[in-house]
């Protein structure tokens, strides 16, 4: 028994010797997070690796995570000082293996297994839109006494133009700028907080640099302050050939230049012939040979031109070869008669101009007319003649004008005149039908009419409207009609065509034009609408006998252009805008055809 006790004592002594011989762990005196990262190889939601920024004194780990990343579950990779164990959300975490939730404010806890040291780090998440961007630029009325309203560019772009009223042009103004996430702004090299303002000299370009300090990217912008451009009118010249009796102006859709068809009497000529001229951009020039109309037998009148889509030019007039009937000629090195002269079955009304055009849907040359004999139906109906390639086909358009009774007067139900709009695919026509009011139709390719507005009488207008009217097309295909409100009161009114409700709507205030009780002359006024910005321009002789160029301002009130030394008009006012917004005004004075250009003033921008 004593022997076994002795053996046990010896074994215990041996174990004791072995334990006391193991190396003892020495505390490092540290409990620190040395690195922290989220790698894309371990985190499929990340487009790239994210390296955390550790602030040892503040005990924070800043992670810049793209705004497109919505996941909050990540597998972190990290290093710590010796003997440290990492716990996140109560879970012991192994670097590169354990998935945890990381959001702004998440705590990373460290504890040293050898010593009693521990540490806690807080996660700071910064959103990163990965881009530097300017989000807004403005000159606010509240900051600038020279502005009545806030002014901003059309869009944020590398180079922007901001337009201010003339009173604020090239003056010192206060600019307000805003930028995106983490972005720092410098305006003309001066730091500016997003949403703050800074005085700038607008006579020079304004340089803006936006830097995303997180993403490490920068973008530069330039703002140029220009003047709100105003329309100005300048005279191009006066054209004459002998004595001009009457004329029309039409824009050629292929070259956007104004063409003039006019009757003239040169030298010892006894009758009015017809010629065509154009403004070629710098001077007037005759188009084709002189003498479109053979005036040896009788005078010609009511000259007009029309263009096919390819620019082919046609001229039309009444009289000349056949009294009070139309003749159409085509320019083909010489003026060649289309079909026969005087092709309508009845004499034409010579008081008004009627639509003469090439239908865009089928390329057919067409003209409207009405008869000049009051006792005939043609006096009260719309008549259409169309060139079919071999002959002219003339027809009465039935069902358009209301029926009139046997007891009506000779002029009852009279079809006065029409004005047409020809666009790339359609033809529209506005018409004046005496006591039955104003009508608007679409002219179909087969010559039939589709009614858009019928029997429209302005509020309070008596029966017996004047024949004066014109129709033009503005932006977005909106049709505008300038027509008399009533006979004898000297007022014209712009209307828009409401195709949905099949009516006309007054647009702006009335235009004070001198109109006789019988309707006056059909071209005592002219108007057009800029297809680019909707500016409405009119030219007319006022009741006082003055020639006036006017426009509808932003408040839809008529304002007059300031034009020096306007020759007094005698007749024939025409206003036309081309598709690019360049406008022309033409009218007849004692000297000939006066031509003016309507356009925006020269643009001056800081350089």
What can you tell me about this protein's structure?
The chain contains 1 helix and 48 strands. Strands 3-4-11-10-7-8 form a 6-stranded mixed β-sheet, with no helix packed on it. A 5-stranded mixed β-sheet has the order 13-19-18-15-16, with no helix packed on it. Strands 37, 38, 39, 40 and 41 form a 5-stranded antiparallel β-sheet that branches. The N and C termini lie far apart (114 Å).
Task: Summarize the structure in short.
The chain has 607 residues and is an all-beta fold.
Largest sheet: 6 strands, mixed
Oligomer: single chain
Helix content: under 10%
CATH topology grouping of the largest domain: Methylamine Dehydrogenase, Chain H
Main sheet: strand order = 3-4-11-10-7-8
The CATH superfamily of the largest domain bears the name YVTN repeat-like/Quinoprotein amine dehydrogenase
The radius of gyration over CA amounts to 42 Å
What structural class do you assign from the helix and strand content? mainly beta
């Amino acid at each position: 028994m004593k022997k076994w006790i002795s053996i046990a004592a010896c074994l215990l002594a041996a174990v004791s010797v072995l334990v006391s011989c193991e190396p003892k762990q020495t505390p490092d005196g540290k409990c620190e997070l040395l690195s922290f990262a989220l790698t894309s190889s371990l985190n499929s939601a990340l487009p790239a690796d994210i390296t955390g920024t550790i602030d040892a004194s503040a005990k924070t780990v800043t992670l810049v995570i793209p705004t497109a990343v919505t996941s909050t579950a990540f597998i972190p990779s990290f290093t710590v000082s010796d003997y440290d164990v990492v716990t996140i959300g109560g879970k012991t975490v192994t670097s590169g293996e354990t998935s945890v939730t990381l959001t702004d404010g998440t705590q990373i806890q460290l504890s040293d297994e050898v010593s009693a040291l521990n540490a806690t780090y807080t996660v700071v998440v910064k959103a990163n839109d990965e881009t530097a961007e300017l989000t807004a630029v403005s000159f606010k009325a509240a900051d600038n006494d020279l502005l009545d309203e806030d002014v901003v560019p059309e869009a944020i772009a590398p180079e922007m133009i901001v337009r201010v009223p003339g009173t604020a042009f090239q003056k010192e103004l206060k600019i307000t700028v805003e930028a995106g996430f983490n972005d720092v702004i410098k305006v003309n090299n001066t730091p500016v907080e997003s949403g703050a303002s800074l005085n700038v000299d607008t006579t020079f370009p304004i340089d803006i640099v936006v830097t995303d300090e997180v993403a490490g990217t920068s973008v530069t912008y330039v703002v140029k302050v220009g003047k709100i451009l105003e329309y100005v009118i300048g005279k191009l010249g006066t054209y004459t050939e002998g004595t001009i009796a009457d004329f029309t102006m039409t824009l050629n859709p292929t070259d956007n230049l104004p063409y003039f068809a006019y009757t003239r009497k040169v030298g010892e000529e006894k009758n009015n012939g017809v010629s065509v001229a154009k403004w070629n951009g710098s001077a007037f020039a005759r188009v084709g040979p002189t003498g479109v109309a053979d005036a040896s037998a009788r005078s010609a009148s009511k000259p007009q031109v029309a263009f096919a889509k390819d620019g082919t030019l046609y001229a039309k007039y009444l009289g000349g070869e056949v009294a009070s009937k139309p003749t159409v000629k085509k320019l083909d090195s010489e003026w060649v008669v289309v079909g026969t002269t005087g092709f309508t079955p009845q004499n034409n009304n010579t008081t008004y101009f009627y639509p003469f055009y090439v239908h865009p849907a089928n390329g057919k040359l067409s003209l409207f007319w009405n008869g000049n004999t009051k006792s005939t139906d043609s006096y009260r109906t719309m008549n259409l003649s169309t060139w079919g390639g071999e002959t002219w086909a003339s027809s009465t358009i039935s069902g358009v004008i209301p029926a009139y009774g046997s007891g009506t007067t000779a002029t009852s139900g009279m079809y006065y005149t029409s004005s047409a709009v020809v666009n790339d695919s359609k033809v529209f026509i506005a018409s004046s039908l005496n006591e039955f009011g104003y009508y608007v139709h679409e002219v179909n390719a087969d010559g039939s009419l589709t009614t858009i507005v019928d029997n429209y009488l302005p509020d309070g207008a008596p029966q017996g409207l004047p024949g004066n009217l014109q129709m033009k097309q503005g932006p977005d295909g909106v049709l505008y009609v300038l027509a008399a409100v009533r006979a004898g009161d000297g007022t014209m009114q712009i209307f828009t065509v409401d195709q949905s409700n099949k009516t006309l709507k007054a647009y702006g205030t009335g235009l004070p034009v001198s109109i006789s009780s019988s309707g006056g002359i059909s071209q005592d006024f002219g108007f057009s609408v800029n297809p680019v910005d909707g500016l409405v321009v009119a030219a007319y002789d006022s009741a006082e006998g003055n020639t006036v160029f006017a426009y509808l301002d932003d408040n839809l009130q008529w304002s007059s252009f300031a034009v020096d030394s306007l020759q007094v008009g005698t007749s024939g006012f025409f206003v036309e805008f081309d598709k690019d917004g360049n406008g022309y005004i033409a009218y007849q004075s004692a000297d000939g055809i006066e031509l003016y250009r309507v356009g925006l003033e020269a643009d001056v921008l800081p350089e």
